[in-house]
Amino acid sequence: xxxxxxxxxxxxxxxxxxxxxxxxxxxxxxxxxxxxxxxxxxxxxxxxxxxxxxxxxxxxxxxxxxxxxxxxxxxxxxxxxxxxxxxxxxxxxxxxxxxxxxxxxxxxxxxxxxxxxxxxxxxxxxxxxxxxxxxxxxxxxxxxxxxxxxxxxxxxxxxxxxxxxxxxxxxxxxxxxxxxxxxxxxxxxxxxxxxxxxxxxxxxxxxxxxxxxxxxxxxxxxxxxxxxxxxxxxxxxxxxxxxxxxxxxxxxxxxxxxxxxxxxxxxxxxxxxxxxxxxxxxxxxxxxxxxxxxxxxxxxxxxxxxxxxxxxxxxxxxxxxxxxxxxxxxxxxxxxxxxxxxxxxxxxxxxxxxxxxxxxxxxxxxxx
Amino acid sequence: xxxxxxxxxxxxxxxxxxxxxxxxxxxxxxxxxxxxxxxxxxxxxxxxxxxxxxxxxxxxxxxxxxxxxxxxxxxxxxxxxxxxxxxxxxxxxxxxxxxxxxxxxxxxxxxxxxxxxxxxxxxxxxxxxxxxxxxxxxxxxxxxxxxxxxxxxxxxxxxxxxxxxxxxxxxxxxxxxxxxxxxxxxxxxxxxxxxxxxxxxxxxxxxxxxxxxxxxxxxxxxxxxxxxxxxxxxxxxxxxxxxxxxxxxxxxxxxxxxxxxxxxxxxxxxxxxxxxxxxxxxxxxxxxxxxxxxxxxxxxxxxxxx
Lengths: 368, 306
What we know:
The complex is a heterodimer of chains A (about 375) and B (about 300). Chain A has about 375 residues and is an all-alpha fold. Chain A has 14 helices and two strands; from the N terminus they run H-H-H-E-E-H-H-H-H-H-H-H-H-H-H-H. In chain A, a hairpin with a 7-residue loop joins strand 1 and strand 2. By secondary structure, chain B is mainly alpha-helical. In chain B, helix 4 packs antiparallel against helix 9, helix 7 crosses helix 9 and helix 7 packs across helix 13. The longest helix of chain B has about 40 residues.
């Protein structure tokens, strides 16, 4: 199989008349002109240069949609069969570009401004004031530090998930029942979990978990009073919902390992313990790394439980970056500062994940 | 009858047997313990929705034995037997949120599965060049969206949607949700399509179908289980989504998680009512989880094992 050619190779006869080519070009540039005109008209109307009233910027959206449709149609007109293939990827690509790249560029713009949505002055460019404010904001650094703790907790989650997956993969009765039962927490919305577990089961007076803690000898259980304990509780609730996720990925990996390998090791006299560490675990490394990586990505979005259970307290001990920015916006409705914090966070994530992937790559495929 | 057993287990065999037995006990002990850990909160929530204040305070756990089930919690939602036929503003509010959630989740999952499947099929079959981007770059471009934390997009979208008058509309939510689940669909479906042999389409093309014809009539039916898996995974994620909904919706398009969250904030906890609301919010997905467990596992396993 060649790397360059199409996997599905088709020979096509497209006779491209000049007329058709011209029509295709017209379609693209014409619709682009329409879109540009819409934008210009909207901008001018906003500035008050022309006497047109627009209720909102929605015409710009329609302009973009029109251009997208024309661009897709023009692919077929211009390139025939080749264009029909482009049509598979183009809609998704246009969608993602419009929904991610454009807002990100826009975000860079508002990150360096002071923009209180409720104030009448509107957006004001303020240079690097936000950066300075961020640098001196202990709560943001605290939230970043918490994220590091939360991410480290993944190792414990991984260990539990691996253990459960091993149990599920072993020779047990009623496997389907256990699998469904173990999967259940993943189905629940974090908001519901934060009420079910965080607010009711951990309620200090009547909650069943508080009762259990008292029975176990913890005199006056308080789950969210002490910073360390509160953070551990948030970690546990988040782990509870997401352990099934890692467990199932690892289980799929375990089931893909041929049984003969373990049997051969058994015949050679290896104990179950050594069999695990020297055969199963190394073979599971690629799957484990995928599972951990995806888990990290999901962990970095952690917010719902924190917002609803502790809203960052006590004293910011449980804050994640997302929940911190959420509150920052809720309390002061300042979009500019929040956006800057978010963008710094994104840059940190991208750097961290790239380094992580490079390290993993170096470690998995050592070059001598 | 011989009073003495002729063949009997030796000392070491008996030891082996007890060891095997204790191993079994340990395995099932852990399994049952974890089942309790997983299911107890759900059980607690469902039973609490039938409790009254004294039952909650005395920590009664088992309905009918410890306490007599009452419809109190469900009555506060307007869903108990005696209120279900009567007018109820609470129920209307709840049903509205429920419908909003359903619409957002179904529409965005459908859109994501359509867009994602097409893109994944294209990437698994053809070679593209968009400017400097080749196939691996395009794949990476799509998958890298997974890293993007929602908070980065949230505030810009708040401003943009305000300009576009899309704040507090289901359309706005659907577009954002589609964006968040699209990489997952592409990831799962790319795997699905690359496991389908190209010869199938080649045969279809020889028989005179176009590329799109082959895709729609030959490939899609084969990849359907994968699509269902991706769809359900999207459904779970979008149904439970809270962050964007909390920021971008206020009255009209508010979804169920936002409603649940807004109730937890109010003090003087009305346990039975909250429990009933939580139960109603999680029940659809619990049912989906039990009935379609096979697909969910398939979907999540797709990316893990290459």
